[in-house]
Here is the input.
Amino acid sequence: MLAGGVILGVALWLRHDSQTSNLLILQFEGQQAPGTFYVSVYILIAVGAVMMLVGFLGCYGAIQESQCLLGTFFFFLVILFACEVAAAMWGFMNKDTISKELTNFYDSAYIKAVDVSGSPSKDSAIKVLDVFHTTLDCCGKGDDTALFKQVAGTLCPRKSPEDFLKSQSCHSRLIALFSEKLYLIGLAALVVAVIMIFEMIFTMVLCCGIRNNPGVY
Here is the structure.
């Protein structure tokens, strides 16, 4: 039950983290920033909430020494464990997709922002890039082209010429940001899996003890 609360707390923190929230609420040309990252977060929230509810069932079953309640508790643990394994496989297969999708979203706004022909969506593109640059403390894609040098002052007005020499590209910043977040999600999922295994073992041992103890049901 406590483990479920911890997992739920971590998941809610990841969901409302200012860095990811600032980026994933962006819209450009009617397109919402890709929210694939939130899929794994919502899975953690669901697992944490269900673990807390199921934890009450397990505690009550242990106090009452009820094989029926403990068996139900064990069944839910198996279901949650299977869902977590499936989610882990999905996360491993899509670990590069999250940063790639957001990088493509950044690039689509970047192309419009550096367009010298005066694109109608140039102002909105610059505003989108400003959120990226402020949130990630970056500027540009790291290509350092003549065109970028020409518009760098417009895209990153808060940075001085010296800052551009040491400023990281937004591509690398995005990859680092979501690699860190996915690492935390993976660590939380691993902790949950280990706790679930011990809970299933303990539940089976308790059920066997109740069954072999006459007069207790």
